[in-house]
From TrEMBL:
It comes from Chelydra serpentina (Snapping turtle). InterPro entries: BORCS7. This is BLOC-1-related complex subunit 7. Pfam families: BORCS7 (PF16088). One of its GO terms (cellular component) is lysosomal membrane.
Amino acid sequence: MAAAPAGAASDAQTRFGRSVKGLLIDRVTGCGTDVIALTKQVLKGSRSSELLGHAARNMVMQEDAILHSEDSLRKMAIITTHLQYQQEAIQKNVEHSSNLQDQLSHLLK
């Protein structure tokens, strides 16, 4: 009868070993999955950082373009003002010349 308990003990050890191996395989698989997920997250984070860098550079370029446009608009406003002064001067000269023509035509009659 001593052989039966030894066989049962050996059988229990085998089952215990299989269950431990199964648990270890599950743990290793879980850890592998976690490592893959972590790697994906790190890569996604570095990609996000890269995208933020591109966005920052683009924003700086847009800001420069806006500043340049503002400067151009200021210059155009100054030119417009000067052109208005010139137009007024030309209109006065045209009015003055028509008055002179009228006076000249009166004198020549």
